[in-house]
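I am still learning, so would you mind making up any protein sequence you like and the tokens describing how it folds?
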Amino acid sequence: MLAIFMQEAANQAQDAAEQVPEEKTLSFFELIFSGGIGGTIIIAILFVLLVVAMYIYFERLFAIKAASKSDPNFMAQIKDNVATGNIEAAKIRCAQENSPVARLTEKGISRIGSPLEDINTAIENAGRLEVYKLEKNVSILATIAGAAPMIGFLGTVIGMVLAFHELATSSGQAEMGSLAQGIYTAMTTTVAGLIVGIIAYIGYNHLVVKTDKVVHQMEATAVDFLDLLNEPA
């Protein structure tokens, strides 16, 4: 009798073990492509925006780093050449440096002999051109930072509309599993949009900080050059 009871208990335990629901896993690619054509298109657009944002960020980062490099003895050499009246040597030194600071200084040197106001205006105009070069395509990065989350949210809204459309057309008898799966997949577009937007936003602000440093460096050089021209002979 005891043996029969123990056998029944073992069978019940085995049946319970067999009834344990199997844990379902969903890979990243399955999550993307199971969202239908709408979700896949949104994810593809966000991926393209991410590639563009990363390209602009690294291209501008290297360009700004190259523009910020300058010889610490550059202005001292320019001052010596200008003080001795060797204007051509000063121009050649500026051409050798090939940096925004050097190009601003060269513009001022080329105006030596003109009124100080004209020299200052020429340097300011050259400075605006250099800032424009440094900020090339950075605005696109800012646009991606703002547009990516909205595109992701658009994908989520489309997914929710399709999910409720399925619920409406099935007269409220749609399977909750498939409905939840559609909503879950639709939310991935918002996650993807936020990730792309955050990356672009951080990259944009980092480039702005780097650009401001170069701009301050140019302003300091312009002040030094104008002070040099104001020095008594």
